[in-house]
Amino acid sequence: MAWPVFQSLQGYRPQWLRADVIAGLTVWAVLVPEALAYASIAGIPPVVGLYAALPALVLYALAGSSRHLVVGPMSATAALSAAIITPLAGADSDRYVALSAALAVATGIAGLLAGLVRLGFVANFISEPVLKGFIVGLALTIIIGQVPKLLGLDKHEGNFFEQAWGVLTHLGETNWRTALVGTLSLAVVLGSRRWLPVVPGSLLAVVLGILAVATLRLDERGVDIVGHIDAGLPSIGLPENVSFHDYLDLLGPAVGVVLIGFAEGLGAAKTYAAKAGYTVEPNRELLGLGAANLGSGLTSGMVVNGSLSKTAVNGSAGAKTQMSGLIVAALTALTLLFLTGMFEKLPEATLAGVVIAAVIELVDIAALRRLYRVWTERLGSIYGRAARADFTAAMAAMAGVLLFDTLPGLLIGIGISMVLLIYRASQPHVAALAQQGSLWLDADRHPDLPRRPDLLVVRVESGLFFANADYVRERIEHLCTDRTRLVVLDAETSPTIDVSAAAMLTELRESLARRRIDFRIARSIGQFGDELGSAAPGNASVPVYPTVRAAVADLPENAES
Asked: Are 77 and 267 contacting, i.e. CB atoms less than 8 angstroms apart?
């Protein structure tokens, strides 16, 4: 299959250029300081963030399907990178930088392979609550990791709580100048976002921080600065001193980076595609993510993914196509060529403030509170049970990150998603139905509708297969009473059935017959009826009727259906 390149630029109209240029300038003003900051989260020199952004923007525009998505260094994947590389590199800073680029190469290869074999559906296997809990935990971990830079303290190792305790017990060692620069920088970013949303607060904080160091000589008074940055474009090639064995070690963790980066980027891409009235292709998004990471790794960069915040800036500034991303890339190249010297005086505390301001929006406590409220307000209902499972999964994913660090937290989150999937598939909702005219409705949702004591009509809101067969049988038997004489399974909402479930229905018929209860099936569709017949041919099969009305026709005084 041929994949078109620069898909969003096909049919480009000249009148779009002005909007794309304005959007590109706006995104550049946000991207430069944030790229520097996110590189610091990954534990590498800030300029590496710009090295990564340049090829990522171009290659995503070439291979991706979104017209608005902005790809570059991001906090979540930067923190994942640090968690992956730290135990492998030890105290060797050069090896740390090389392995960070190698991780981007491995992530790129994994993303490209996943896109080529059309694995775009895998993002659906990380549930939204689990992803939300993981991101909240990750954001809190990033914030506590930046607080020492914000206050001029030594950083303490360990999980979130150990780092927080280290900060609290060493507050007396705060460098007041550093703390003043950091807190004012944080206030500038947050204040601009609140009262001057058209002003790029991150860039404003960076410029003010640089001016403060230059005019007040704060670097001579204990305020740490970024220091020397090599000017010029990055070299192209594989990272040096990284063996084939190192790439094999990185390939497994790279899959985790792809999962998180893909899920976050796809969510941003879909949001703005829906607003603009077009669709994105998950497999092309994987290809775009893979190409962007491969290009970043080959230019001494770091892992990248789609950014919701910068995509929002791009969309609100009026971007029409990925031309805006190409303009950001051109401006980033000019920054590397001519403006790096300006950033050498950038205070580390200002970078910390920019990072904290960027990730604080990810601490979405309101979303967790909503899940908890649904759980407590609808106890006992199917919605309440689902909300309880979602809330528990979100909290477990968050706790996994806070207690065991980023990568174990990711694995816990993925494991919880799989457990939730299996749990929900194995315990589908089995609804007892009540009649309203020609319709059969869920009796729990319509308690005012009368029900016949001798008739039980049930609906399983799922396909029937080996994992849920026993649960469905137990639920139907539990819903029967001493007065029940006929059970009808309305199979319209069960499009599939396997051999195990078909055998279960036959056994259920026999079990109910011993209680002098007849069992019938109505409205089976397609494969359901075929599988029933092959699993239990002849007299052993459950009788199937075209409608519920036909199934209950021989009951005395039957209700219309």
From this structure: no
Phi, psi of 460 (to 5 degrees): -100, 120
pLDDT confidence bin for 559, thresholds 50/70/90: very low
Check: CB of residue 340 under 8 Å from CB of residue 39. no
Highest mean pLDDT among 123-137, 508-522, 547-561: 508-522
Cβ neighbour number for residue 86 with a 10 Å cutoff:
17
pTM score of the predicted model: 0.75
Tell me the H-state helices in 170-281: 176-195, 201-216, 244-276
- Residue 433 sits at φ, ψ, to 5 deg, of -110, 150
The residue-averaged pLDDT of 304-331 equals: 88
Q: What is the 3-state secondary structure (H, E, C) of 300-330?
A: CCCCCEEEHHHHHHHHHCCCCCCHHHHHHHH
Beta-ladder partners of 306: 71
The neighbouring-strand residues paired with 439 are 436
Residues near 537 by beta carbon (within 8 Å), at least 6 away in sequence: none
* SS3 assignment, position 486: strand
Q: What are the structure tokens assigned to 331, written together?
A: 């401006």
Q: Which H or E run contains 72?
A: strand 70-72
Report the alpha-carbon distance of residue 73 to residue 107 in Å, rounded.
13
Contact (Cβ atoms closer than 8 angstroms) between residue 273 and residue 279: yes
Amino acid identity of residue 423, one-letter, is Y
User: For residue 6, which amino acid is it?
Assistant: F
Strands 486-490 and 518-522: parallel
Alpha carbon distance 443, 461 (integer Å):
14
- The CB density around residue 534, as the number of other CB atoms within 10 Å, is 11
Strands 305-307, 486-490: pairing kind: unpaired
Tell whether the model's pLDDT for residue 34 goes beyond 50.
yes
| Cα–Cα distance, 110 to 294 (Å, whole number) | 9
Q: Which residues pair with 143 in a beta bridge?
A: none
Q: Residue 223 has what pLDDT?
A: 92
Q: Go through 399-412 and write b for each residue having 16 or more CB atoms within 10 A of its CB, e for each that does not.
A: ebbbebbbbebbeb
Q: What 3-state DSSP class applies to 518? A: strand
- Given the structure tokens 């250029």, which residue do they identify? 17
Give the integer Cα–Cα distance in Å for 154 and 393: 34
Query: Coil, helix or strand for 528?
Result: helix
Three-state SS for 108-152 is HHHHHHHHHCCCHHHHHHCCHHHHHHHHHHHHHHHHHHHHHHHHC
Length of the chain: 561
**CB-based contacts of 195-204 (< 8 A; 24+ apart in sequence):** 200/26, 200/29, 200/30, 201/357, 202/29, 202/30, 202/33, 202/34, 202/37, 202/354, 202/357, 202/358, 203/29, 203/30, 203/32, 203/33
